[in-house]
Amino acid sequence: MIETARLLLRPPVQADHPALYAMWADPLVMADLGPVKDAAASAAALARHDGFRHEGLGFQSVVRKEDGAVIGFCGLKRGDPSNPIAGQVEAGWMLARACWRQGYALEAMRAMLAWGWANLDVPHIVAITSRRNAASRAMMQRLGMTYVDGGDFDHHAFAADDPLRHIVTYRINRPASAA
């Protein structure tokens, strides 16, 4: 478990599923992430993200300490083997709409990156998003990530005419203090 001033980050438990599934079913949350998911697709997404725990990676439920509410999902995983970031450590996050613009995602991901530098022997961590996802791109920059020139690609999971297909890559290098 990772603790910040306002949050607990921990592996998802069964009681978290309704809140997480609600995020995946929210068209505004998913507008720049991919299609909304029903319960079965949400369960599959949880299982996929949990599949990295054997190497110390995986996504966490983001729990607000003041009331115990599950407000997001974030973590580190291996990049999809069919994308140019294959095998690299990839950061990602999702937050319930009611919790946007309150600094929770930034707080959670700063803690995840700090955990990554302390526990993983990797030279950098990447994050990807659709080219049009200005909010995530701004968040990546606030985290200290920089745009990877030449890192754009078309994501195989989206149709050729889907604007979410066009992906950009950002990267943050291991800080000297974490070496």
TrEMBL record:
InterPro entries linked: Acyl_CoA_acyltransferase, GNAT_dom, N-acetyltransferase
SUPFAM superfamilies: Acyl-CoA N-acyltransferases (Nat) (SSF55729)
N-acetyltransferase domain span: 7-165
Pfam families the record matches: Acetyltransf_3
PANTHER family xrefs: GNAT FAMILY, PUTATIVE (AFU_ORTHOLOGUE AFUA_3G00765)-RELATED-RELATED, N-ACETYLTRANSFERASE DOMAIN-CONTAINING PROTEIN
Name the UniProt record assigns to this protein: GNAT family N-acetyltransferase
Biological classification of the source: Bacteria, Pseudomonadati, Pseudomonadota, Alphaproteobacteria, Sphingomonadales
